[in-house]
Amino acid sequence: MNIDGLLRALESGYRDKTPKSLEIYRRAEKVMVKGGSHTLRLWQPYPFFIAGAAGAEVLDADENSYIDYWQGHYANILGHNPEVIRKELGEQIGKGALQTGFEAQPQIELAETLLHQLGLKGYKVRFTTSGTLATMYSVMLAKAHTGRECILKVGGGWHGASPYLLKGVKYHAGVGFECGESAGVSAEILKEILITRFDDGDDLARILREKGKDIACFILEPFIGVGGFLPASREYLELARRLTEEHGVVLIFDEIISGFRFCPSGVQTLYGVRPDLAAFGKLIGGGHAVSAVVGRDKIMEECEAPGPGRMKVLFEGGTFSAHSEYMTAGLIMLKHLIERAEEIYPRLGQAGERLRRGIETAFADEGIEVRCTGYGNDVVRQSSLFMVNFPLAKSGLKSPEDIWDPAVCAVRLREEALKLALLGRGVHVVHGGGAVSTAHSDDVIGRTIDAYREVAKTFKKYV
What we know:
The radius of gyration is 22 Å and the shape is globular. The protein has 2 domains: 199 residues, Aspartate Aminotransferase, domain 1 (Alpha-Beta Complex), CATH 3.90.1150.10; 256 residues, Aspartate Aminotransferase, domain 2. The protein is of the alpha/beta class. 48% of the residues are buried. The strands form 4 sheets. It has a 7-stranded mixed sheet with strand order 4-12-11-10-7-5-6, sandwiched between helices. Strands 1-2-3-15 form a 4-stranded mixed sheet. A 3-stranded antiparallel sheet has the order 13-14-16, covered by helices on one side. A hairpin with a 5-residue loop joins β8 and β9.
């Protein structure tokens, strides 16, 4: 497998196609760390810089057009700059919607909408501005509520850059996910983060049996994101709910990606499993910086003075928390998804299914083994997510360990070569795939499959 030779050829073609982006990048490098502010956007040899975005496509500084499956970190379920958001939000901005620093009513309606769609009673909402903050505050609330210090999370689960959760994100040869991920996080904090395997009920039961009295919370994505776009089984989530209750552990669902992605609610409603706390983001902001913690009243009360001799959790909010423009955009988005759910979600699911099957067939026709993840299961039946994997042996891809272990999958082929090869054919992906939006028409899906087919022919020369 000559991946280095393939990458050299692909990089040469990419440089020829994007000279203006290279010029801009060299300027950015002089004033910004690695030329930007988000590492995942800064791929090698350099990223293209966008000049516009609409629907399923983005336009770069060199006037190259790309079908985009990143879609605002999976936040743009209606595509880039959807008219329904721009039109209705424009009317609000015309009335004056810039920062005021005061409470306003749109946040109340958005909170009411969230709780109604989730079917929750005895829960409350507090808004903030990023998924990292929502998961961080969720952990702080759980630690305060239980008086315990340890946090249990899934290996391969990404919950943002909170120090409480910066362990077990990336796969490391020889140790798997049992590693801290960042300098600047104390060794004591890392010792308090425990790792379990995704969808492995036996491992979960073992850890809770051995250390349950020390664990404040178990946080997981019911449909794991960067870990491989894999849905948990119903049995696993039901077991997680039962065991956490038995051991007095707060169960936290990270629904930053899954919230309103598969249905006009959280994926928790499909499973019928209710966590104690849940973090939402991305789609609920309508293209703006919005996230939320939704939690049981008794736990959310930790934000207030909980009693004599006890400190409250300083979930105080930031300058732009519950910004009226952001709240209004979120309301427009959720109302649109709710009112058109019977049309939108089946269409997204069908497009996702066609794309996954089409990609697998395109590579199979060239004799290359490819497995897409992102398929649903008996609970999540309509999935618009996809990740392309190159397994090195015929085995199931059921865990983040399978997806990210270079002994199991050709990770560089997916992360580096596939990205550059697709850019050369007018398609932009992250981790080999991404998220389908309503703007990805049948024609766009067909063009995408054709692009993967051309990439498969190129790969055949090197793989």
